[in-house]
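Example 9 (inverse folding). The structure is encoded as follows.
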């Protein structure tokens, strides 16, 4: 059997999904007895004995994987995006919404990569959050009455990797983004003001974008820049959608968020990094880090 880039990708995603099934708070023996995405996970898992699975390949190892080990964890999760804790997400609207924005960020980045002709990068971006986030939270989503959309995520990745028509890829990715938007309504209730919840979600996404930017400046050839671009775009969209409640409930955080996003907008001017990113970064990584730290302080992020 020829081991293609696509085969390696799906194999590593299967490993992530299977590890996610062992997350505390889930009934392991019932994890995949039913529900969307089960057949896809099982079929890919069958490839594992024949392959060496040790991460996501060069993209993950050089970009996202390193970044997530340095401050990109979802609150209450284990390390990084893999290992999202369903128990915490079931109680914390901040953790729940961050998990959704991790999916959203990957899809926004994937669409941007697709539009500049990077089909493989787009397919990877569409695929990663299935194993990193969705597989761990599928049961929680189902318990909250959310229609499953894991199979749609897998189909979207395949549509990019298999060379399907641009309109098909865009439409499929759009349906995933619509599903993520709908899931937000199932977030757990909280005693926090709505604006403070949004500020803390944004603080996390801005930190992710900042960490990935720092990594991208240090190593432009990795996947960190595209990852960070997606986190920035997700944060930008959330800030715009919730500007009124942010300014009402968390005005100091809202101001810091606006300033950080303006800085990140200069750092991330497109899906592709500038050729001289390491030699002449458009924004000093230290300034971005300082702006992110201010957001976290004013948002009261633990």
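The amino acid assigned to each position is listed next.
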């Amino acid at each position: 059997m020829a081991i293609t880039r696509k085969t390696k990708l799906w194999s590593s995603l299967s490993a992530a999904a299977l590890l996610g099934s062992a997350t505390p708070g889930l009934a392991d023996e019932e994890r995949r007895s039913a529900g969307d995405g089960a057949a896809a996970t099982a079929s890919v898992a069958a490839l594992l004995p024949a392959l060496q699975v040790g991460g996501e390949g060069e993209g993950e190892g050089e970009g996202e994987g390193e970044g997530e080990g340095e401050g990109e964890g979802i609150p209450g999760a284990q390390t990084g995006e893999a290992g999202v804790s369903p128990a915490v997400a079931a109680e914390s609207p901040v953790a729940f919404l961050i998990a959704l924005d991790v999916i959203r960020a990957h899809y926004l980045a994937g669409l941007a990569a697709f539009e500049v002709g990077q089909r493989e990068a787009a397919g990877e971006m569409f695929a990663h959050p299935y194993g990193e986030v969705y597989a761990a939270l599928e049961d929680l989503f189902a318990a909250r009455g959310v229609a499953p959309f894991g199979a749609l995520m897998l189909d979207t990745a395949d549509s990019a990797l298999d060379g399907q028509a641009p309109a098909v890829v865009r439409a499929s990715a759009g349906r995933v983004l619509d599903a993520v938007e709908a899931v937000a309504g199932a977030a757990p209730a909280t005693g926090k003001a709505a604006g403070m919840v949004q500020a803390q979600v944004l603080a996390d996404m801005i930190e992710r974008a900042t960490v990935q930017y720092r990594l991208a400046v240090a190593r432009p050839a990795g996947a960190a820049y595209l990852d960070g671009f997606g986190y920035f775009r997700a944060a930008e969209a959330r800030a715009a959608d919730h500007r009124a409640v942010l300014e009402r409930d968390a005005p100091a955080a809202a101001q810091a968020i606006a300033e950080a996003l303006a800085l990140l907008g200069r750092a991330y001017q497109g899906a592709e990094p500038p050729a001289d990113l390491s030699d002449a970064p458009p924004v000093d990584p230290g300034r971005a880090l300082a702006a992110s730290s201010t957001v976290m302080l004013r948002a009261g992020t633990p």
